[in-house]
Amino acid sequence: MLSAVLSLNALGLAAAAPLESRQVVPHYPPTQQSKGFHLIANLTDPSQDFTPPVNSWQLSGIHVGAGLNDAVLAASKGQLFYQNGTAEQTRYNQAHTLSDGGTPLFPWGIAVDDQADTEGVLHGISINAGSGQVGIQLAQFPEHYPILRTPAPGTYVACNQTEPYYHTNYITVRAMFDTFDSTTGRYVRHVPENCVAITLVPQCAELPALPSGSMSSHEFANTVNCYADVASIDWPEYGP
């Protein structure tokens, strides 16, 4: 849905006439800029949605231990995030995606469990106290869509899973890494049963000033490209 393929259409006007070509102009949904954002789930294939639908739900964390949150999708307002890093760190994909929580406010960072990097393995995603994982940040130029990057080629997935801490089902957010097929020279995508492939798309939100005594800092909070209302975007309308 969010991939872009450039094409050129040639029209034959007459048998002896030269071909005229029409260049297709890239057309992408307009972005705004903000330091704060919510991460909105956008299904790669909307026909594969759950019942009830979770397309346009928001990334949030649920408590599973001291300083530990598991990543899930919430139907209502999710966590407020910001991208944190110096200009150099951000340029070289070494920034972090953080949220503030606790009393006093403390940074909580997104991280992907990559300890079991094997085919068909769901990789857990945490939003734990601390700086999270380096490189979990929004895609930047030359990418056309500022979606949240995975730490390796692959996709985020939303899964209908039992959360052991609560003994009930949640729509969890996980990562699946692609595997390389040496015979075709291509990466192969994996989406397990009870899961659907998603992108996490930033929706602009105000990043409020921190109260006195906070342990968080917004000194290196980036101004990022984001969308005013992700749910209202008609994605098939856009692209080159």
Description:
- This protein is mainly beta.
- The chain has one domain (8-237).
- The chain has one helix at 87-91, and strands at residues 8-11, 20-23, 32-34, 36-43, 58-65, 68-74, 81-84, 96-101, 106-112, 123-129, 154-163, 168-177, 179-181, 186-188, 195-205, 224-226.
- It has an eight-stranded antiparallel sheet with strand order 4-15-11-12-10-9-8-7, with no helix packed on it. It has a two-stranded antiparallel sheet with strand order 1-2. It has a two-stranded antiparallel ribbon with strand order 3-16.
- β13 and β14 form a beta hairpin.
- Mean pLDDT is 88; it is low at 3-17.
Q: Low-confidence spans: pLDDT under 50, at least 5 residues? A: 3-17
Structural class: mainly beta
Number of strands: 16
In what order do the strands lie side by side in the largest sheet?
Answer: 4-15-11-12-10-9-8-7
